[in-house]
Amino acid sequence: MKKITLIALLTSSMITISSAEMFGGMMSDMMDIPKEMITSGTDAMRDMKDAAKDSADAVKDAATDVKDSAKDVTKDAKDATTDVSTDANKSTKAEAKK
């Protein structure tokens, strides 16, 4: 009888210990899930912020390029107008001398 009682106690204690470890591990895993969700959410928000900043910088650079191109075109047009008017003045003066 003592042997059976001793075996039953050992068996029940082993089952209890293994159940506690399994439950403890499960609880630990369940606590890790919210931490991972917060971390991944924070990373996603940081990535979105960086992408928005990069997009804004790209738009700013494109606007600057368009502005510079417009200045170049305006300058070229003014130079061409000046050259035409200078050529016209020279030819008018040359005709007047004849």
Q: How many helix segments?
A: 1
Judged by helices, strands and strand pairing, the structural class is mainly alpha
| Biggest sheet statistics | none
Quote the average pLDDT: 77
Strand percentage lies at: under 5%
CA-based shape = rod-shaped
Describe this structure in words.
The chain is mainly alpha-helical. 98% of the residues lie in helices and 0% in strands. It has one helix and no strands.
Primary descriptors:
98 residues; rod-shaped; mainly alpha
Blueprint (SSEs and pairs):
Blueprint lengths: L1 H96 L1
Task: Give the gist of this structure.
By secondary structure, the protein is mainly α.
